[in-house]
Design brief:
0% strand; 4 helices; 71 residues
Length: 71
């Protein structure tokens, strides 16, 4: 089993990848064969997608810090 995000990365479709990320897709989710969108982007040396995933990770970390302070 795979995810739409992994498939978008596999075919190097940046607009769909961005759309999926902006709508909550998680690049860290792992398929049934052990691959993630982030890992696949790294294997493809796709710097644009790697940068996109890192920005997503930073924004998630920032949200986590905000919620941590509230609770």
């Amino acid at each position: 089993m795979t995810t739409p995000l992994i498939e978008a990365v596999r075919i190097n479709h940046l607009p769909i990848t961005k759309l999926l990320i902006e709508n909550g897709a998680d690049p860290r989710l792992v398929s049934s064969i052990g691959e993630s969108a982030f890992k696949l982007a790294k294997l493809q040396n796709n710097e644009r997608l790697i940068a996109l995933f890192k920005r997503k990770k930073r924004s998630l970390f920032s949200l986590h810090q905000i919620f941590k302070k509230i609770n």
